[in-house]
Amino acid sequence: MENMHRFLRLEQSMPKNFYPLPRIDQLVDSTSGCELLSMMDASQGYHQIMLAPENRKKVSFIISEGTFCYVAMPFGLKNVGATYQRLVDNIFHPQIGRNVEVYIDDMLVKSKKAADHVKDLEETFSVLRKYKLKLNPAKCAFGVQGGCFLGFMVTQRGIEANPLKIKAIIDMKAPTCLNKAQRLTGRIAALSRFISKSVEKSLPFFKTLRKAKTFEWDTPCQLAFEELKAYLARLPLLVKPSPGKPCTYIYRLPPRLLAPYSFGKKMENNYLYTTHCQKATPYFLSHPIGVKINTPLKQTLGKPDTSGRLVKWAVELSEYDISYLPRTTIKAQALADFVSEMMEMTIKEASQDQKWLLHVDGSSTAQGSGAGIVITTPQGEDLEFAIKFDFKASNNEAEYEALVIGLRTAHRILAHS
Fold first, then answer.
1. DSSP code of 383?
2. What angle, rounded to 10 degrees, do the helices at 198-210 and 178-190 form?
3. In this protein, which residues make up the domain named Reverse transcriptase (predicted)?
4. Residue 158 neighbours by CB under 8 Å, 6+ apart
C-alpha cells in the first residue's frame, strides 16, 4: 500500500477489474481428506508479471536520483489482485479442483493418495516452468500431512483453527481501552467459523464498543471473556461433507422472535438469520435437501394466488433439490418438538408501580380499514404494530377493533415478558 499515494490519479482513472476471487471457505474445504499436501508461495508476488512497454510510463515515480518507472506490476494498485488471480486461474485451469488450489499467490498441491503426490508435483512444476513463475523456498512445504493454508490448519482429518490465532486470544489480557476491545472482536471474527454461536458469545464485547465515549469493561464482559478462552481451548474439528451422506442443518428461532415483537425489529432479526443461511448456499446446492415440517409448505408455495413475498421465496427455493418430509409422530420426537418449540406461558404478576401504556387508533377509507397500535412498556420501550383489516368497517368499528386487538396484544406481551 505504500505506492498508493504515487499512483493516486492513475487509480482514479483506472476502471475496476471485477474478476472474482475464489471463496476461501470453499478452497479450504476442498483440501480436507487429502493424504499429502504441498504449500507453495510465489516469489516476489506481483513483480513476476511484466508490464506492457506502453504502460510502464503510467507507473513512473520521481526520487532524488531521477525519474524511474516499473517494468513489472507493482504492489498497491487496485487491480493487481484480480489480475494475478486471472493469470493463475488460466494457467492452472486443468488442475484446479483436481489436484491444485490457488488463491492469488498462495498455491496448494493436494493428493488423495500419497503415491500420486510426486506425479501431481511434477505436473504443477511443469506449468510453473512453462510460464516462468518462481517460488519462495522459505515459504514452501512439500509432502506434508498438514499445514497452514489461507489462515486455516488443513489435515487429512479435517480443518482446524490456526493455533497462533487461538493463542493470541488465550494469552490476551482483559482490554483496558476501546482499541484493545476492537482488537479482541477482530480476532474473534477471524475464528468465527469454528466458534458456535460466535455472535452470542461476543455480544457483551460489542455492547461495550457502542459506548465510544466511556469505555467500561464490566463483569458480564469479563465472564464472557473467560468463557470464550475456555471454549477456544477445545475447538471442534471441521470435516468436509461426504458425498451420499445426509447433512443436518439445525435452525431454531430464539424465544424473543416467537413472542409478539416490534415488526421492524423482527424483520431485522429474520434478515440476519436469512443472511446466515445464505453463507451455506454451496453446501445446499451440492446436496439434496430434506425439510421436516408440520405445515404443508409445498402446497402453500405452489398456490396460484400466493402473495408476492411467497412467490419470491418460491422462485428462490426452486434452484435447490428440496423434498418436504412429514415429521415422525413417535412419542420421543413429539416430546423433542414440544421442548424445542413451545415457550413458557407463565404470566408474571405486574407490580403496582409498573404501568403499561396503550395507544390505539383506527381508520376507514374507500380502499380499506386498519389500525395502528403503540404499546409502551414500563422500561419505556415502544412496540409499534400496523394492522390491515380484511373486512369493511366504519371509523368507529375500526377504533373498537383496534382497542380489542391492542388489549389482546398487550396481554400476550405481558404473558411472555
1. E
2. 160
3. 1-154
4. 32, 33, 237, 238, 239, 240
Q: Would you tell me the crossing angle of helices 163-170 and 219-232 to the nearest 10 degrees?
A: 150
Concatenate the DSSP letters of all residues of 276-319 into one string. HHHTTHHHHHTS-EEEE-SS-HHHHHT-TT--HHHHHHHHHHTT
pLDDT at site 293? 66
Contact 78, 84 (CB under 8 A): no
> N- to C-terminal Cα distance for the chain?
53
Overall size of the chain counted in residues: 417
Cα–Cα distance between 110 and 37 in angstroms, integer? 5
pLDDT at 400: 76
- Partners of residue 289 on adjacent β-strands: 322
Element (DSSP H or E) covering residue 27: helix 24-30
Rounded Cα distance between 49 and 81, Å, is: 12
pLDDT tens digits, 341-362: 555 444 445 455 567 788 877 7
Nearest Cα to 280, choosing from 242, 250, 310? 250
In sequence order, the β-bridge partners of residue 148 are 153
Which candidate, 173, 223, 180, 171, places its Cα nearest to that of 201?
Answer: 223
In this predicted model, which residue has the larger pLDDT, 173 or 33? 173
For residue 393, the 8-state DSSP code is -
The residue assigned the cell 477482530 is 186
Q: Name the nearest CA neighbour of 37 among 92, 107, 89, 97.
A: 107
Domains of the chain in sequence order: 8-152 (3.30.70.270), 162-232 (no CATH), 262-339 (no CATH), 357-416 (no CATH)
pLDDT single digits (tens) 359-399: 877 776 767 777 788 888 777 777 777 777 777 777 777 77
CA dist 323 and 269 (Å) reads 27
What backbone phi and psi angles, to 5 degrees, belong to 110?
-125, 150
Interior angle at CA 34, CA 100 and CA 165, nearest 5:
85
Radius of gyration of the chain measured on its C-alpha atoms: 29
Say how far apart CA 311 and CA 301 lie, in whole Å.
7
Long-range contacts of 326-329 (CB under 8 A, 24+ apart): 326/292, 326/293, 326/294, 327/292, 327/293, 327/294
C-alpha cell at 98: 483436481
CA–CA separation, 87 and 69 (whole Å): 23
